[in-house]
Structure formats: structure tokens, C-alpha cells
Design goal:
Length: 203
């Protein structure tokens, strides 16, 4: 399901963005919503976690530091290389996959307790969102959780392509119980009012 090589959503286009400098979607640190979750009384138990579209891996590193067994996937070579270097510098062991997320099944079907989503859902063609939902459901073990930061901006075009809480519920509820879906209270200033955090459990 990879976009054509001339598409702004193709692996080559994303790789070029990484090579040209700091992408605007890269905060340079983990998503505040994940930091808050892992420091809270509702923090998930450690387990196997798949970070989708991991980029340079700030979220992947955070979960690994908290004791999760992390697999991080991205199809941009520069992103995976940067993530590997960061993990090595912090003496962390992660499984790194330079792959298209849609190529993960059936090889990794049912293998993860958690899927971690931040700036992947908003970066794919919106027409692929139903396929994304099925993919995540297939990758998770029964009762596994999707921990997700959804970008809910209302600007036209993309990437990033915005969504709404209503769309998230409509897309995911056939396969997931929406445990929580709430506005992020501690977004970085440039994303204030434009993020929702969701905890969705595979049915």
C-alpha cells in the first residue's frame, strides 16, 4: 500500500524530508501526552510495544526507558538510523524495522500488547485509514491497547491530515473499545488545542 514514488507520501519523499533537516512533525522529544501517561496512576503495565511510523524515535526511546519491549518501524532509512544511534547512546535495546507498516502482517500478527501512534495516522493517505485500523487490530494481541495521539487540526490538505474525535470513533469502534479519548492538556504550544489522546482496546 506504499504510495507511488512520485507521491509526497512515498518512502522517498519522507526520506528526503529527513535528509533536508528537522521535520516539523519531529518535536525533538517524546509526546507530552505519553510522558504524562507513563508518569500517571493509569500508566500501562510494561509489555511488548510497537511504535508505528517511529521517525527518529523519541517516543520509542521513552517507552523503552520505562521497561517496555519496543519494536519501532519506519520506512525512512535516515529515521531508523537516527533512532538506532539514539538508542545506542542511551544503551537501550530496541528492535528496529525499516519497513512499510502495511507490510507487517502476517509476520507480526497478534504479537504486541501495545501499539504506539503519534504522527503516523496523520501522515498516511486518509483513504488508507480503514486499512490502518485493521492493521493495528491485527498486530495487537487480544485486549491489546492502541495508545495514540491524534492530530485534530482543521486545516485543509496534508500531511499532516487532520481528523476529529467523531471520525476516530467511527473508524475504530468496529474493532476497538474506546477506553478514553480526550483533548491533550499539555500539548506543545504549536499544537495546543489540536491533539487528542486515545486509549483504545482491541475487541
Amino acid at each position: 500500500m506504499t504510495a507511488s514514488s512520485s507521491s509526497p507520501l512515498s518512502p522517498a519523499a519522507w526520506e528526503q524530508r529527513y535528509q533536508e533537516g528537522t521535520p516539523r512533525w519531529d518535536l525533538g522529544h517524546p509526546a507530552p501526552a505519553f510522558q504524562a501517561l507513563l508518569a500517571s496512576a493509569d500508566a500501562p503495565r510494561t509489555g511488548s510495544a510497537l511504535v508505528l511510523g517511529a521517525g527518529r524515535g523519541h517516543d520509542a526511546i521513552l517507552f523503552a526507558q520505562q521497561g517496555f519491549n519496543v519494536t519501532a518501524v519506519d520506512f525512512a532509512p535516515s529515521a531508523i538510523q537516527a533512532l538506532g544511534a539514539q538508542a545506542q547512546a542511551k544503551d537501550l535495546s530496541l528492535q528496529l524495522l525499516e519497513r512499510d507498516i502495511f507490510d507487517l502482517v502476517p509476520e507480526f500478527s497478534g504479537q504486541f500488547d501495545y501499539a504506539i501512534e503519534h504522527t503516523c495516522f496523520c501522515a498516511i493517505d486518509p483513504a488508507l485509514r480503514p486499512a490502518y485500523v485493521e492493521l493495528v487490530a491485527n498486530l495487537l494481541a487480544p485486549n491489546g491497547d492502541l495508545l495514540a495521539v491524534f492530530f485534530t487540526h482543521r486545516r485543509q490538505g496534508g500531511p499532516p491530515f487532520g481528523t476529529t474525535p467523531t471520525e476516530v470513533r467511527q473508524l475504530f469502534e468496529p474493532h476497538f473499545e474506546v477506553v478514553s479519548l480526550e483533548p491533550v492538556a499539555n500539548s506543545v504550544p504549536s499544537r495546543s488545542g489540536e491533539e487528542y489522546f486515545g486509549r483504545l482496546r482491541r475487541r
